[in-house]
Design brief:
The complex is a heterodimer of chains A (470) and B (503). Chain A is α/β, with parallel strands linked by helices and 470 residues long. In chain A, 47% of the residues lie in helices and 12% in strands. Chain B has a five-stranded parallel sheet, sandwiched between helices. Classes of the chains: A alpha/beta (470), B alpha/beta (503).
Chain lengths: 470, 503
């Protein structure tokens, strides 16, 4: 009778990262125990992969193989019939040795026999030693398809080529490269693809699993870009009234606005990270461009702009602090003509207290203080970078920041998306403009749609299709 | 009317309510910054079957806030129904007043003469014009679906919010309006209300007209300065086509001609004219609006029913791992062995033999071997690699037979390897096979950093292995060169001892 759930035994030498591989595939950082030491896992532990609550695949973490040469020695010392193949293994498993000296190995072999396929995890930093060939020889006696998984491939000093050659000599041509520590969604997809290539009858569930994983990743990305879009809308629409003549009050208001924006960025960053951390993939702290959830450089400094190839906006030229722009009476000088028309139209038709209040305030000597375009660009670029680091596309953790990214370039120099300019004229879109804990008011018309639209532009081409070399 | 769940009672009851509750809970959680943590609700969501959407709804409904929102929706429905009723009554009265004014004016100012086209355009003209405007605006992508309906929705919403500014009702209204917006149903809801109000207006006008025509006597006339008579005949025939198709008596051409102002009116024509008037109010005023109201209602309920939650919203995505985990543990299926199996070693005092130092290596990188091979001289016998089983077997058979026995057996391995049981066994066997001291030298510590290996941890693991295998000394060398240097001093010292012993 065919089992309902595909059973996969994860086997390999001791300390090659079998449990880590399971943790990553399961998105469960609490599965088993992981240490850089031999024989950390000494039992067989299982877990299922679920799609919408249905189990499609069961993974079994096994103890490391430590004494495969010993088993081969035993088999040579106790020869049975010739060509008995898998039966010789059974003979071995029935002996007292299998319960004694080789108990750990016997658990692995039994589990592999009870599974449809085995993933043979290899530490790709290791040289191809004879003991590994011995292991493959013993595992082959289980008569189950075996897929080698090259682990720890993200760092330098790996021997992927040597391993591939050695495995090919043993007739193992389908090799998976998957780093269990530096997660890569593409690598995971390939793992499932290769599994289905050797297990034709399980193609359906494996495809379903792959599709579900891709959907989840897509959803998470969409949610993250929405958080970033939300941030940008809040900041673009933020406006503070400053008294043009009172220098002290003005600098105080400027400082307050800047702090509000910093705080808003921090909150967004926290939420994005939370979204991914709950995804169950563990992140090394140094892999993210942050320290304790904060960016290395302050938002409102020329260094931060320079880091992303941006120049300070013209707002500074008319007397506002870095990162801010004063909307002077000659409205639009600092915000650009596009904003001007957008602002005027918005004031006339959208913002209920718009134009009248603005003119009134200007006449009374007040000016509107806003966050300038360069800072909006910087916020967008930073969020994109964070997202890329979180998604580990092209191993963002180790690769230097790619400043030639075409879409980043668009955020750097092309005009800002129209929806952001629209937000400029919509103070009611910004949560930063709510100075007190207000009651629930009617949802700001059009903001949700604007957020979705902007999110789509932020997420654009974060993963250029087929861009990875492997 | 605002609350849509009544419309969807035919399909999954409460499904739409559930989604609105989920929206309200999401908005609350997004503002609060953290999900509501109620164990019962998490459990309900986790146990719900199906995809993420149903699980989110199950959880939201199970939260305390969710229950309050559901209740509030119920109340809102009552409020909306009340508001709609009041508005409809007002519209009905307006219709009656409008018809009353038209008929009253005819009775007092025109001595019972009623200009049929004037009456019709008074009662149908404006709303037909507005209907056209509505139709044009519905063709636009961002239309809101009728001013009257919008106003009614807005009034109800603000009424509900005012009743409880900071609480659940306000949240519910926000969630509901947001949901109508998202599903694209707002325009249909507003359209439905707009049409319903016009239906009420039409009914009012019709009632008043029936009343006036029943108890008063009017002469129906028409007149024109610019147009010809045949235009009016054609107009009346056109207008009467529908009513006559359902068997009503409408004025014929002769009657139309006879009703022109200045011609002695035919008493027999009054009935036909009033039938045409009432039928026109019904057919061109009430019925189309009623039909459109039904269409809007159908679109509204369809939109509400078929649109699922916006699962990509950050507020929902962060619930996903808890509501719909991608994995479930099966637990330990084969428990760990009781303890680490002891390796058979025998305690013995090492005796330095008279032979050379025997150098073997285990699991070394290729580039580490050559320098070791270069150490071969009169005092050092390089045995070579013992990586494969054959070499191991040879060493273990030949080692006891070596004469004279070696001064020291030095096993060189690498810190980059994880020690395993096979290595332990091998070391123990080497130890048993010779009376000489067995030393373990570990190289490669200098490379460990680049590979992300913790040398201290590995050294500790090897230490344990060495202890279990009975190794006499273990040396960790940070660099290959140092290892070789150390080996050379060792060999020199051994040679000195040898010569001293010989002297």
């Amino acid at each position: 009778m065919a089992p309902e759930v595909l059973r996969v035994a994860v086997v390999g030498h001791t300390n090659t990262g079998k449990t880590s591989l399971l943790r990553t595939l399961l998105r469960d950082t609490h599965f088993g125990e992981v240490r850089d030491a031999p024989a950390t896992t000494r039992h067989v532990e299982g877990a299922q992969l679920l799609v919408d609550g249905r189990a499609l695949l069961a993974l079994y973490d096994t103890p490391g193989l430590e004494d495969a040469p010993g088993i081969l020695d035993w088999l040579e010392a106790h020869p049975g019939d010739r060509h008995e193949g898998a039966r010789s293994l059974q003979r071995f498993l029935d002996t007292p040795e299998a319960a004694g000296r080789f108990e750990q190995e016997a658990k692995v072999l039994r589990q592999l026999q009870g599974s449809e396929v085995g993933l043979y995890v290899i530490d790709a930093r290791e040289p191809v030693l004879p003991k590994y060939r011995d292991e493959l020889a013993v595992l082959a006696l289980c008569a189950r398809p075996l897929l080698p998984v090259l682990n720890f491939i993200a760092g330098p000093g790996t021997r992927v080529a040597a391993w591939r050659e050695a495995l090919a000599e043993l007739g193992l041509h389908t090799v998976i490269e998957f780093d269990s520590v530096v997660f890569d969604a593409v690598g995971e997809r390939r793992l499932f693809e290769k599994l289905s290539s050797v297990l034709d009858q399980w193609r359906g569930p494996l495809g379903e699993l792959r599709a579900a994983r891709e959907r989840d990743a897509r959803w998470r990305r969409e949610a993250a870009t929405r958080l970033a879009a939300d941030l940008l809308l809040d900041v673009a629409a933020a406006v503070a009234l400053v008294d043009a003549d009172d220098e002290i009050a003005r600098s105080r208001d400027e400082a307050a606005l800047r702090e509000q924006v910093r705080e808003r960025e921090r909150r967004c960053t926290d939420q994005v990270i939370e979204l991914f951390a709950f995804g169950g993939v563990e992140y090394a702290v140094d892999a993210l461009p942050l320290e304790d959830g904060r960016w290395h450089t302050d938002l409102f400094t020329p260094e931060a702009l320079g880091e992303y190839g941006l120049k300070a906006g013209r707002g500074a030229g008319v007397g506002a602090a870095a990162g801010l722009a004063v909307d002077a009476l000659s409205a639009g000088l600092t915000l650009g003509v596009g904003t001007l028309t957008g602002a005027m139209l918005g004031a006339l038709f959208g913002d209920r207290h718009g134009l009248g209040r603005r003119l009134f305030n200007r006449v009374r000597g007040y000016r509107e203080l806003r966050v300038d375009d360069a800072t909006l660009r910087l916020l967008a670029l930073r969020q994109r970078r964070l997202l890329r680091a979180l998604e580990r596309r092209g191993h963002g953790a180790v690769a230097p920041l790619d400043t030639t990214d075409e879409l980043d370039e668009r955020w750097r120099s092309a005009s800002l998306p129209r929806v952001l300019l629209r937000a400029r004229a919509r103070p009611e879109w910004s949560a930063l403009n709510r100075h007190r804990a207000e009651a629930w008011s009617a949802p700001a018309a059009g903001r949700d749609e604007a957020c979705v639209e902007l999110a789509a532009q932020l997420g654009q081409a974060l993963d250029p299709a087929g861009a990875d070399a492997r | 009317m605002l609350s849509p769940s009544a419309n969807t009672a035919c399909s999954a009851p409460g499904a739409v309510t559930g989604r609105i509750v989920a929206e309200a809970v999401r908005r609350h959680e997004e503002r609060a910054g953290a999900p509501i943590d109620e164990a019962h609700a998490w459990r309900q969501g986790h146990q719900a079957s199906g995809g993420l959407g149903p699980r989110i709804v199950a959880r939201a409904v199970a939260t305390r806030l969710g229950a309050q929102v559901a209740q509030s929706l119920e109340r809102l429905r009552g409020l909306a129904a009340g508001a709609t009723l009041v508005a409809a009554v007002l519209a009905l009265i307006s219709g009656m007043v409008a018809a009353g004014v038209v008929f009253g004016a005819a009775a007092t100012e025109a001595r019972g003469q009623l200009n049929i086209f004037w009456v019709l355009s008074s009662l149908l003209g404006l709303q037909t014009l507005l209907l056209l405007v509505w139709a044009v605006f519905m063709g636009l992508p961002r239309s809101r679906g009728g001013v009257l309906g919008q106003a009614l929705i807005g009034a109800t919403a603000s009424l509900a919010r005012r009743a409880n500014r900071d609480g659940v009702h306000a949240l519910t209204v926000v969630a509901l309006l947001g949901w109508l917006e998202r599903t694209g149903s707002a325009r249909w809801a507003a359209g439905m209300l707009t049409h319903l109000l016009w239906v009420a207006f039409g009914v009012g006008a019709l009632l008043m007209s029936v009343l006036a025509l029943t108890f008063r006597q009017y002469d129906f006339v028409w007149g024109t300065t610019l147009l010809g008579e045949e235009s009016f005949v054609a107009l009346v025939a056109g207008m009467g086509a529908l009513p006559s198709a359902i068997g009503l008596e409408v004025p014929d051409a002769a009657l139309v001609s006879a009703s022109r102002i200045g011609i002695e009116s035919m008493p027999a024509g009054r009935r036909a004219w009033s039938t045409l008037l009432l039928a026109s109010l019904l057919v061109y005023g009430i019925v189309p609006r009623l039909g459109l109201a039904l269409v809007c209602r159908w679109r509204l309920s369809r939109g509400l029913r078929t649109t699922g939650l916006d699962l990509q919203a950050p507020g929902y995505q962060r619930l996903a791992p808890r509501l719909m985990p991608v994995s479930a543990s099966l637990g330990v299926v084969d428990p760990a062995p009781a303890g680490v199996k002891a390796v058979g070693t025998r305690g013995r005092r090492p005796v330095t033999g008279q032979g050379p130092v025997l150098l073997v290596w285990l699991a070394l990188e290729d580039d580490c071997r050559e320098p070791l091979e270069g150490l071969a001289d009169a005092r050092v016998q390089v045995w070579g690699s013992v990586d494969d089983r054959r070499a191991q077997a040879r060493l273990l058979t030949e080692l006891p037979a070596l004469a004279p026995p070696p001064a020291v057996v030095v096993v060189v391995s690498s810190l980059l390897r994880t020690p395993d049981r096979h290595a332990t066994t091998l070391l123990a066997q080497v130890h048993s096979a010779t009376p000489a001291p067995v030393w373990l030298v570990l190289t490669g510590a200098d490379r460990s950093g680049g590979l992300g290996i913790d040398p201290a941890g590995r050294a500790a693991a090897w230490e344990a292995v060495a202890a279990r295998a009975g190794i006499d000394a273990m040396v960790v060398e940070t660099a290959e060169a140092a290892a070789r240097g150390r080996l050379e001093t060792v060999f020199a010292r051994l040679a000195d001892e040898e010569s001293a012993g010989g002297a």
